[in-house]
């Protein structure tokens, strides 16, 4: 008689509900990534607790979690602040992104494309075109992130995805510097359209070269915005 698989004899683990701290952290994280808290601003436990209708304990734990994620900066004896990213930070963020996304591009292009990926990329580019036409730069930033996230997801690597989640959150802080401002890169739409075309093909070298150029342009743009904010 065949042995029953070990997993079949075990009771499934109960589904864990999100803790209050996790819910508070999700809320603060979302507000950070949508630019509600401007770079350099201080986040106070008391004010956040009152606005969220919770005690200070979950807020304190949430802030510590977001500091660990790199979305907030803790200054001893002063408090917790939204980072005011330096030019060196910008360069490092895009350096890390290029390393991660080059790996994802390589795998996606040299493997069978996941169903729906190419159409999802094209749809995102079409939405990017619409947002660009009406000057909705916050929406443009969201769609920019969505495009690159689709490629990371398509690579099918949970570890790569986890690393990307951290660096894309910091990227979103960078992009918030451009939200509701005049665009410095009118060729952003064309770059994403070209990336989508290359992902659909099989020329890895051309795709990685285009990705490198894309991030080089992005780095210059965001650095210029950082300089403008610091004036």
Question: How does this model look, in words?
Answer:
- The protein is mainly α.
- The chain is 68% helix and 3% strand.
- The protein has ten helices and three strands.
- It has helices at 6-9, 20-33, 45-52, 56-68, 87-110, 117-134, 137-155, 158-175, 188-200, 204-230, and strands at residues 42-43, 73-75, 79-81.
- Strands 1-3-2 form a three-stranded antiparallel beta sheet.
- A hairpin with a 3-residue loop joins strand 2 (73-75) and strand 3.
- It is globular.
- The relative contact order is 0.12.
- Residues 1-13 have low confidence and may be disordered.
Record keyword descriptors for this entry.
10 helices, three-stranded antiparallel beta sheet, 231 residues, single chain
How are the strands of the largest sheet arranged?
Answer: 1-3-2
What's the main sheet like? 3 strands, antiparallel
How far from one another are the termini?
77 Å
Gyration radius, in Å: 20 Å
String of helices and strands: HHEHHEEHHHHHH
Strand content: under 5%
Shape: globular
Poorly predicted regions = 1-13
Give the proportion of residues in helices: 55-70%
Count of individual beta strands: 3
InterPro entries: GntR_C (IPR011711), TF_FadR/GntR_C (IPR008920), Tscrpt_reg_HTH_GntR (IPR000524), WH-like_DNA-bd_sf (IPR036388), WH_DNA-bd_sf (IPR036390)
Keywords: DNA-binding, Transcription, Transcription regulation
Protein name: GntR family transcriptional regulator
